[in-house]
Amino acid sequence: MEPTAPQDTQADRVAAALEGLIFDGVFSDGDRLDEVRIAEQYGVSRTPVREAFQRLAQSGLVRQLPRRGAFVRQPGPIELIEMFEVMAELEAAAARLAAGRITDEALDLLKDLNRRSDDAVRERDADRYYDENERFHAAVYAQSGNGFLERECLRLQRRLRPFRRRQLRLRGRLRQSLGEHRAIVAALEDGDATAAADAIRAHVTVQGEKFHHLIASLRQAAE
Amino acid sequence: MEPTAPQDTQADRVAAALEGLIFDGVFSDGDRLDEVRIAEQYGVSRTPVREAFQRLAQSGLVRQLPRRGAFVRQPGPIELIEMFEVMAELEAAAARLAAGRITDEALDLLKDLNRRSDDAVRERDADRYYDENERFHAAVYAQSGNGFLERECLRLQRRLRPFRRRQLRLRGRLRQSLGEHRAIVAALEDGDATAAADAIRAHVTVQGEKFHHLIASLRQAAE
DNA sequence: GATGAATGTCTTGCATACAAGAATGTTGAC
DNA sequence: GTCAACATTCTTGTATGCAAGACATTCATC
């Protein structure tokens, strides 16, 4: 049950493309997605486009009103904060479980991932750091030993990706983030479930907070 | 963004019906869902049936293999344990947040719901207790003050419904469950986030454990 | 007798056609 | 000039038709 099984059908292609456009902010909240326009644009009939809409609707990216169409649904600041809060809790749960189940081998993997992140920070390569960061978190999910939790975490991680990406650009965040990663690994190494959960919760919550500030400043600037 | 917006389209009707059949265990894991058969059965064409399949696939109830069809996907014992574990963590998160945000009014509501549960227990009405139980938990989700978390909790609660229902039938579970509810309310009343989270986590985990035993005994009986 | 290729059937994926509901514009009355 | 009722147009929801991939059966070969 992969969250998004990359199948070779047209509907999947269109769904993936639209998802990308929504993530990239090409569409604003409330925009209507025209079936025929999109169908023409991708050279397919309305059927696969409609299937794509349904998938996006289930992911919460679009809202379908019966007999009225599909509308883009961008999360507002409040909902984003909420989503980061849930992400923090899910990751905390993963860390808690991982603390009791993690192997030495997996610990080495996490340390190795952090070393690579360190390289990226030193080279000021934000994009590469971002990738390594995601791998680190995914590795923690995997170590929870709970496949369902892992998939839920990956799902939300994916959904928050475009927003996390923005806030990582903030000054000094990279190095700080890396330090937090080390604290998480240390807690896992100690087998301290509570400490691991608290560490990763704080780590992710910081992202939400930073994002909150970012939004607030943008809003102020707009006024 | 209701998890299942009851819309008046054929696809929704078929999706709801199939979901019910899957939940009720009419279909076993791996069963193939025949488009044409189901279409005839519900007096519609293949199109809405296909749309229904997609929706069920997104919910994880069926698995779609390209060019091969839709197959029912019932969670096995391991995945169920995993799902209960995640449910416990999500509810713990909701309780943690609720502890800091809950109002006196909401506390009264929870106490009232528990009183009604008490009535149900006294009348040995398992079904009614079950309903009141769900309302109690839903009220805790709502008090988290996090709409996204609330929806995620409701989604998983819904998915686990058929399995929870079974284990509540176990001897003595009703009264025990009610006592745990009281402990949760007490912790919330104290504003003790950790205690509230631990209490509800234990409460839900017990359900998973009980379920585990149930499965194990069934398996033993089958051998 | 077993294995593999070829063919035939069945099922899905997509395109197109049609019908019904929603949105829009027009006309008429006040 | 404004509002409302009606008609028109547009869009969505559903049905059907067609093509390509998957499965099964059969036949040939080792």
UniProtKB/TrEMBL annotation, chains A, B:
Residues in HTH gntR-type domain copies: 8-75
Gene3D superfamilies (alphabetical): GntR ligand-binding domain-like, Winged helix-like DNA-binding domain superfamily/Winged helix DNA-binding domain
Record carries keyword DNA-binding: yes
Transmembrane segments: none
Any Pfam family: FCD
SUPFAM superfamilies per the UniProt record, alphabetical: GntR ligand-binding domain-like, Winged helix' DNA-binding domain
Entry GO MF terms: DNA binding; DNA-binding transcription factor activity
Keywords assigned by UniProt, alphabetized: DNA-binding, Transcription, Transcription regulation
Protein name, UniProt field: YdfH_2 protein
Lineage: Bacteria, Pseudomonadati, Pseudomonadota, Alphaproteobacteria, Rhodobacterales
